[in-house]
Amino acid sequence: MTLWRVFFILAAIFIMVGGPQHPGGTMAEMLTHPKWVPAHLLLLGGFASLLAGLLLFRRKASLPERTLWWLRLAIVGTALPR
Questions:
Q1: 8 A C-beta contact, residue 11 and residue 47
Q2: CA triplet 43, 44, 46: central angle to 5 degrees?
Q3: pLDDT digit of tens for each residue in the chain (82 aa)?
């Protein structure tokens, strides 16, 4: 298995585990909830893994120019702060 695939799988796992943990309620309630920090750290790890996977995929793959354009767009979109 190539390394970029490992990062894609990690990204999926982190995002699937971290997303549902996000607490609901008002901002004050969410910030004081004990799962707020772990949920956001898992999501951050998921997006960091996705970015690493996309960058490794770009280095490894021989892709058509149109696909490379979309890949660059995905990398920029993943790297932008939320």
A1: yes
A2: 60
A3: 799 999 999 999 999 999 999 999 999 999 999 999 999 999 999 999 999 999 999 987 788 999 999 999 999 999 997 6
* Tokens (6 digits) for 9: 């799988």
In single-letter form, the type of residue at position 72 comes to R
Residue with tokens 């892709």: 63
How would DSSP label each residue in 22-37?
Answer: ---S-HHHHHHSTTHH
What is the phi/psi pair of residue 21, to 5°?
-80, -15
Please name the residues in contact with 41: beta carbons below 8 A apart, sequence gap of 6 or more: 18
> pTM of the prediction?
0.86
